[in-house]
Structures
1.
Amino acid sequence: MTTVTLTFREALNRAMCEEMERDPSIFLMGEEVAQYDGAYKVSKGMLAKFGEKRVIDSPISEGGFAGLGVGAAMAGLRPIIEMMTWNFGIQAFDQIINHAAKMLYMSAGQFPIPIVFRGPNGSAHMLAAQHSQTVEGFLTHVPGLKVISVSTPADGYGLLKSAIRDNNPVIFLESEMMYAFKGEVPEEETLIPIGVGDIKRAGHHVTVVAWNRMLHRVLEAATILAAEGIECEVIDPRTLQPLDEPMIFESVRKTHRCVVVDEANSFASVSAHISDRVHKECFDDLDAPVVRVSSEFVPMPYAESLEDRVLPGVDRIVAGIRETLY
Amino acid sequence: MKQDLMKQKSKDSALSKDFLVQLYKDMILYRRFEERVHVAYTTRRKFAGFCHLHIGQEAVAAGVQHALRPTDYMIGAYRSHTQAIAKGIEPKAVMAELFGKVDGCVRGKGGSMHMFSKEKRFLGGHGIVGGQVPLAAGVGFAIKYRGEQDICVCYMGDAATNQGQFHEALNMAATWKLPVLFIIENNRYGMGTDIHRTTSVDHLWKRALAYDMAHSQVDGLDVLNIYDAVKATADGMRRDNHPHLMEIMTYRYRGHSVSDPGAYRTKEEVAEYQAKDPMNMHGKFLVASKLATEADLAKWDEEAKKIASDAEDFADQSPPPGEDEIWQHVYAE
């Protein structure tokens, strides 16, 4: 397959542009998405390409424009709503949780809500407590939502296209720290199905599950351990709701060990859920309890040294993996 | 004076006898339906949960509906049984929904607060105060996006105007000139709290001033007045795609919900409003104008009671949804 090298933001931009060219009912709305080209330049050039009818600068009013998107979806459009960051997206949780997620069910199937809420999730660098949160723990909890969290430009491209075509509300989690990452993306139009994980590195000693930015730290840890002859199988679920459980279970049945790395706080998180599922479904296959490496249970501090300590660092990930290897 | 004015209106060719009679028939149907719902809930214990009745406010549902086109959209809050019927959902499907039965308009999955009909463009039935207001802005956005001539009516109660989402939605609707008619049904009480105890402005239409939005206040005790106001407003909105905030002054006779005894207001106050009941006033007008006789009114009353009673029979006979329905409609294909 021929590929092109794209940054994360270019890959996401390409996905949106291809879909908007295909379907005139798709529009993009969010803070600074049009004239400013996006706070992180993900929508660069889209105003020029699609015009102000379809690429719309919103007021700073997350609950309002998220709700506008849900209403537009009820009336037959397919909105892409950009959250400048998911920290601001918390303002829109009423619309996402109470309205978008439940509309199909409450209306007994009459009103599907084909909408994508997308934007950067998780910590960046020295942004402190209100700008460093992860939302997948909150949102994977809600029936009716699909939640995607991507780690590479190719996955971002293929999964954003699928998210836009999906007839459900899809939460699409990116990362400020990854927008400039470069990667190989198929030159030909490609869709990645929602709910299918990806083995980012094959191995046979221990299964390590991670997504979004943590995936890259896990790959670093795997390289360090490989030098000692420890081969990690690194699984990127890519979609957290629904979760590709069969891929995780199959790997654990081979390696007999499992570590889950999660940028969220550990209590009642996605990693807690994966750990529970692996213990239940792979109990007889496990040679060690599942280990979770998460952020410390504190609001994110500002100071660089403290932020580094709170997040799952490569050292803590390596230590977590070693914990299963006895 | 008001009666004379209405007589005058009745001579208007646009307001035919049939139309004036239909307004009465609609209002009495909504009244008898809700009374039946109340008894089914309290005395006969046919269902539980929250149940917010529209009794006293029927003129709003009737007056607004007749001023709209069938293709116009409507979205409301949780006091919406009669709005759903006005928009075209059959009374029996509303009653079956209240009873949690499979023949309800949303198969027993929504209940009192969540009635929907895609076909009739009734977009709910929403239970979070003010949450439906941005949705209405989105419907208006879609109408404008496609260049259609419809409008979206968004009902809300007086207390919803203190929610942040109300203000966010009004700002967007006014900025982008979205064809949404925001209707505040001001029944004076947000649950048990007099709206003036929690609101900085004396009139809720003033909320529109902050957004340079067209606005009006309408006497909701006069059904023709409501019809005229909504018709003229909707015509203007279709012409030049703009939103409008309309405050309709109304009153509910029952509690906020069935379980509310209404200790926060006097019996005299309720009686005062009931003495000028919009449905009865319209009936008197029909008789005085020789458009109907007392016997006609009694006959229509019986017809309304029959529809409500048949709706209850239908709901009784409808089965509860099967267990497999639990898993349906969580995600769309």
2.
Amino acid sequence: MQYVCKYAPIEIAAGFDMDAEFLNPSADNYESADMIIHSNVCSFSRAIVENRLNNDNAPLLLTTCCDSIERASDVLKNQEQEVFMLNLPHNAEHCSKLLYKNQILKFIDDLSQSLDRTFDIKKFCSAFNDDDDDEVVTGPYISVMGARLSSELLEYIRRESPLPIKNNSCTGLRKLPKPLPGGSLDELITWYSGALLSQTPCMRMTDIKQRRDLTEDPNLCGIIYNTVNFCDFYSFEFSKLKAVLKIPILKIETDYTNQGGGQMKTRLEAFFENALSDIKKEADHVDILSGDSSYYAGIDSGSTSTNAVIIDNKKNIVSFAVIPTGTKVGESAEKAFEEALRKSGLEKDQIKNIVTTGYGRSKIHFRGKDVTEITCHAKGAYFLDPTVRTIIDVGGQDCKIIRLDHEGNVLDFVMNDKCAAGTGRFIEMMAQSLQLSLEEMSTYGSKWTEEVVISSMCSVFAQSEVVSLIAEDKKLEDIVHGINKSVASKVVALGKRGKMEGAYMMTGGVARNVGVLSAIEEKLGEKVIVPKEPDICGALGAALLATEIFKE
Amino acid sequence: MSRVVKKFGELVGKNIEKNPKKSLRLLKAGYTASGIQMKYFSKHDLLPHQKYASVICNENVRYSLSKPDNSAVVNIFFPCELLHAMDIKPGFIEGMSVYLNGAGSERYFIDYAENMGISQSYCSYHKALIGAALSKVIPKPKFIMNTTFACDANIITFRTLAEFWNVPAFTVDTPNSDSNEAIEYLEDQLKKAAVFIEDMTQRRFDEDKLKEIIKRENRSVYLYKEFLKELSYKYIPNDVTSEMYKLFFTHILLGSKEAEKYFELLLTDAKNAKLSDKRIRILWCHTIPNWQKSIKEIINNERYQLLAIDMNDDALIDLDESMPFRSLARKLLYNHMRGSSNRRAEKLLQMAIALKADGIIYFNHWGCKKTLGSSGIVKKILEKNGIPVLILDGDGCDRQNINEGQMRTRLQAFMEMLEGKNNAVCLQICSDRNSSRL
């Protein structure tokens, strides 16, 4: 018997000599599911459908825990799969417990008929054991909260976290006491129904006061808050916690596919690096040497370009190079590094330390250390202008908003999800449709006369909108202006989630696009600082970090 | 959207953060102006019931904004008969959001809500109203009442609103079953809801008045059923906005005097209507984005009969006035928006047969997981029964979340397909007649 929800009365399976299996599948793709269920229902529901369509399946026990699961149940039942659906009340009041008790009793009857077996109360009771599968966490810990997450991701978080992890996500909170011996079936199931409904509530329950216990623990040092794509329950709680809690909190969104691992890794690593720096091993650093010049390099391996910066021990930029990232990250990094060396007239062995950053940071074998681009951008931007409090980094593939404190430490950051809107890629796509070069895209918008709105939030749809505007004979200048505004609105909306404030600095290749820059300034109602070389901010930050030696 | 509405929306939107009171004043002034226009200078081609509906719906929304102390914010499925019995006026979030859209301002409120962390995948009806509340533009009501049905958004939105406004809220947990036990469970909660209203108003709940309201509701439902009989063979001019107005009368105003008058006018208009002729007859599933240019241009057309949206016939049953709470519980559970996809498909099938629909447009409103998740099953069942279905992905409330060009093409192609089918049937009949003459 497979189940997905913590409220599912899965111990019943033991009463029929069946095993209970927690179904939490990731999907490589949704090829089969997409044929029978709309792609805008929650990703986890689609993952269940995808998994069940492609595997031999045990009976599935579901509850009416959310709209998407209800529909996944409909779809699977229409595929002749054996699905038991229990009507789950929204509260733990007396009447609700009785209603759920009867649901469970009916489930026992249905299962009994389906299997032609009788229900064994003793075996049922033995399914409740004292052994807690979760490792016991004492002392400071990080809590994973919010919606369910894949076992692989949870394992990754456990492995990488500097502190123990408590799984307080919706399915991680399944805890039931042992039943008292004796009593009739009716009495036992009445108790069982109450025990199930009285667990720490998930967000679909109407009374969620008990959830406060999850965040009012003095040992709680940080929260990784998971939301699932197209699940609406949890973003609400995140916003609230973010506003009131003083501890670091990171929001991640997962879509139950095995894709996007790189971006997720960056977010988590940056969270562990920055937000939890006070509880990590103290990273004591000293400025290296004085006297003779020594040199340090930073390499930022981005999706579009690879940038290298060489600085001396007085933090003067000696040289830099920007080259397109080819198919092999390591080779591009070597080329960028060699180009920077050539410009500086230095030899490799004169470089004391190299720090790499960007998506390809861990693929560069000659690195001394790799650090996320969040930390490096913060370092670089603060070095260039210490008044900066918010960095808007719009790169080829993603967009990040990084908030700094007055000492240049990262206070908070947000990144766009797996969507091209508000990134350099979006502008490239639009330029292709308009048959303009990126330079032309940068300047055309300033000559606009008519307000044109690109309303779609999706890049693919926005591209077809642009094609429609061309068909309507709209002026290119007006369309480009509309595109600039669309990018600006996406970027600023992302930033507002992070409560950004001036002074602002824009980095990344898109900072060179004057149209987008002025649209962002208009949205913010404030001037934005753009460094002379906005592409190399991350590499500069990496080089600056290379001047600091970390004591083990 | 006209330039005036666009400018008006911008003005409302520009003020929501710096001067929310000004945004509210603008909205109230705008609705008052449109109310006057509807009452005294309405479009000539509207039928009496349509003119009346536009005025009453406008009044309902204005009331929530100007007299919040005597208003409750509810969801569309909440049994408002309980509120009518205590003279509390309901304002429902779906209706209020459609009016924010009508004022060209919904996107500003949606932006506000999204910036506060509400997910982009959330229902835009709910998101717009959350934005309007959290930005402090719309005033807080006396209290909140909602059902957990028909979607998860009800739990999230009303909890958020109650916390933000700091007003008492009562949630009716609607079980997903129509067994006797489920009816009893719900009946018990509706009785508790009445006690909650007593507490809120400091007045004794008037059960006799509730019975009167239920009697009036039965009369209204009778009139509406008679209307549906007329509709099955007549052409009764309809437009997307009027069909959306009808939701007020089939839901939150049902049982009120205004609703009874509406259904009287509706039936009279139906009796005066002509025969359907050869018009294409369309049944619409879920809400209609009545503000969308392409949809208005295609559907508000004399060549077609927009029959109804399924939500306007979701729970119209005779109620036993001697057991008012039990009857209301039965009605809630009868609703075809509750339960499985197959249940909704069966209801659509029944409606399509009864109203002689040529085709069904199934509107996949962004964020409505239940509707989205059912679309494949519903289409399969209806097409198996010979009813063409168009699945139309869109957004009922957010102008920025649609692709006008694509939707126009789909809708137009579907209508052309149905016309082609009808012509083919006519040709077949003509050719059969000719061959029989030979």
